[in-house]
Amino acid sequence: MESTLSIDLYNKRPMTIVRGSGALLYDSNGNEYIDCGANYGTSNVGHCNPEVVAAIKSQCEQLIYIPSTYYNDSRAKFMQKLVEITGEPLKKVFLCNSGTEAVEAALKFARGATGRTDIIAMTRGFHGRTLGALSATHNPKYRQSFEPLVPGFAHVSFGNLEALEAKISDNTAAVILEPVLGEGGVILPPQDYLKGVRELCDKHGTVMILDEIQTGFGRTGKMFAYEHYGITPDMICLAKSIAGGLPMGAVVSAEHFCNLPKNAHGSTFGGNPFVCAAGTASIDYIIKHNLAANSGDLGLYFLESLRNLDSPRVREARGLGLMLGLELKTKSAGHLKELMQNGVLALPAGKNVMRFLPPLVITKDQINFVIEKLEQVIKND
Q1: Which residue in the list 92, 222, 240, 373 is annotated as catalytic?
Q2: Could you give the 3-state DSSP secondary structure of residue 58?
Q3: Do residues 220 and 228 make contact, with C-beta atoms less than 8 angstroms apart?
Q4: Which residue among 15, 277, 283, 365 is least packed, with the fewest CB closer than 10 Å?
Q5: 240 catalytic residue (yes or no)
């Protein structure tokens, strides 16, 4: 029935998922899958995490929705929790409903704070599909049907400081980038690259926006990926796993970049108590169970296992924490389909890369199962 009702925008997989627990998903036929996509990285604490479920149930009995024109205890608790883990100077929060909304807000905040118009983003970067976020997204396949997009955007090569230095100017409101390219192929930056971006932004009075929508909340082995590189951005965009699988986005900013007039921006459902309760429970669970460190340890094990795959089809395995990419010498789509048929769900990242973003609660035994099945599907014919 769903196929006859929905606007046909998604590449559907031929299965109906009806249940999830931890790192496992189950279809309507009772088949079990190890989920190495985590709903595109939204389920860091696992599917139907019991502590998140309990928080949702409790909040539902108190108050589901109240707009941000009223103060609310659940929202205040969540925002306090969020700024505790982001740290100085990221102390001001705007709550919305998705990653692309967070990007839209950050771009507006940067233009409003600086009075400038230009935005620099990265080739192979992905920031969303609404018009502002799409203007920062580089891939032509997302852009072509909707041009002309928002003016003032330019793209430079990720990891190339010289290219950024040549493009940035005193009319650049913001540089926006992912600390690790996700959809762009799980590409890590050179070690000193983000420090160089930080220095160039400081030199020109430009807002440095990090899109941590996929990399945040323990995914890379730290609570946030920027911690690996010894810098702090002026703003971070957050979403995906921020609320245990419920829709939420956030911008966390240094105070001097978000002094905007009343009603300059807003979100009807942003920061509703229902989702804030889930967000607090999710962050608490990540901290209590050391999921960031777990991601780092298991990520190294997973990455080493990928590098030990004996197949002439493999070009490279790379990643950070439990954000991993296996680049093949052939297209990945057929291998991903076959992997699904063998009980493992993974994601593409471009035409040749298989992307693994499992819930951070995945076990070593489950990783071993994934590697066993992966070895089977990429073996030489």
Answers
A1: 240
A2: helix
A3: yes
A4: 365
A5: yes
In a domain, 189, yes or no: yes
Whole-number pLDDT of residue 5? 81
Rounded Cα–Cα distance for residues 43 and 63 (Å): 24
CB 352, CB 331: distance < 8 Å: yes
Give domain status of residue 357, yes or no: no
- Does residue 257 have an active-site annotation? no
* Residue ranges, the chain, pLDDT below 70: 1, 380-381
pLDDT at position 12 is 83
Q: What is the pTM of this model?
A: 0.96
In a domain, 149, yes or no: yes
Q: Please enumerate in sequence order all residues whose Cβ is within 8 A of that of 42, keeping only pairs 6 or more positions apart, or say none.
A: 240, 241, 245
364 belongs to a structural domain: no
d(CA 80, CA 267): 19
Q: What is the pLDDT of residue 381?
A: 52
Catalytic residue among 153, 211, 224, 274: 211
Interacting residues of 57 by C-beta distance below 8 A, sequence separation 6+: none
User: What domain count does the chain have?
Assistant: 1
108: domain range? 53-288
CATH of the domain at 250: 3.40.640.10
